[in-house]
Amino acid sequence: MRLFEGTAWDKPPVCDRCGKLEKECRCPPLPLAPEKQPLKLAMEKRAKGKMVTVVRGFTDIDLHQQALLAELKGACGAGGSISEEGIEIQGDHRDRLRKLLVAKGFPVKG
């Protein structure tokens, strides 16, 4: 007889979404809630004097951030991209981005 036989600890952990063992599970990790991702806004100067507003602090760049990028670009009327630093929007749009991100539930600094 084993010590934890018949209890919840006797069974190996399984994924809540797919039901497979955690070792075999290939489900993508769940993104953090917006209120748990404090973001920082910063202005940076790029080549030829171009200004870029950078939003840093995302825990992971995935489809949710790509949808957010499209929304931010549309609201600012500017181009932008996702880099390893975070989301970059062309031009100085700190005030507008701060309002949009706070409305979405993100705590924003800078």
Description of the structure:
Strand 3 and strand 4 form a beta hairpin. The protein starts with 38 loop residues before the first strand and ends with a strand. The chain folds into 2 domains: 1-28, no CATH class; 31-109, Translation Initiation Factor Eif1, CATH 3.30.780.10. The mean pLDDT is 85. The radius of gyration is 20 Å and the shape is elongated. A 5-stranded mixed beta sheet has the order 3-4-2-1-5. The protein has helices spanning 63-76, 94-103, and strands spanning 39-45, 51-56, 80-82, 87-90, 108-109. The protein has 2 helices and 5 strands. By secondary structure, it is α+β, with helices and mostly antiparallel strands. Helix content is 22%, strand content 20%.
